[in-house]
Write a structure and sequence with these properties.
disordered N terminus, six-stranded antiparallel sheet, 8 strands, two-stranded antiparallel sheet, mainly beta
């Protein structure tokens, strides 16, 4: 099944096959408090993680990496999606009872498992970068408009 991505806020027919893709975490943006779908009337502190993937689109003769944005509640509870993502990226679980600086993951090259969820591209999981692959080039790309509007803080790394 193919995925149709939205680039620059306008629908374009850029197709990505679902499955494992090379990626790099390029931004972590604080998008504030969003409604908690499991607890009506409550909110959760949410961050958008932006990944560049090794799939490109071309506009006006310029090739750019596609990006995937995923929202995560800022918690390392063992049942949280962020905890599962970090375990996949690191290849093991963070040590219980210690702190973890999520910004240490910016610029890290990984493999993302992408799935289609309706009209959206979603991150299903991650694993450490596969040795022997040629690392993709990380480009200096702007954040999605919706993240810029909601973001109170943004971190960028080019490694």
């Amino acid at each position: 099944m193919n995925m149709i991505l939205t680039v620059g806020g306008k629908k374009r027919d850029f197709i990505v096959e679902p499955g494992m893709v090379q990626a790099a975490l390029t931004h972590i943006s604080d998008v504030g408090y969003m409604p908690d779908k499991f607890n009506p009337g409550k909110t959760k502190h949410t961050h958008a993680l932006t990944f560049q993937i090794d799939r490109q689109y071309e506009i006006g003769g310029v090739k750019k990496n596609m990006t995937v944005d995923e929202l995560y509640t800022l918690t390392l509870n063992e049942r949280s999606n962020l905890y599962k993502l970090i375990c996949g990226i690191l290849g093991n679980a963070p040590v219980r009872g210690t702190t973890f600086d999520i910004n240490s993951l910016i610029g890290k090259r990984i493999m993302l498992d992408l799935k289609q969820d309706g009209n959206f591209v979603r991150v299903a999981g991650a694993i450490p970068f596969i040795e022997g692959l040629k690392p993709m080039e990380i480009q200096d790309l702007p954040l999605a408009d919706w993240i810029v509007k909601k973001s109170s803080d943004s971190n960028t790394a080019m490694r």
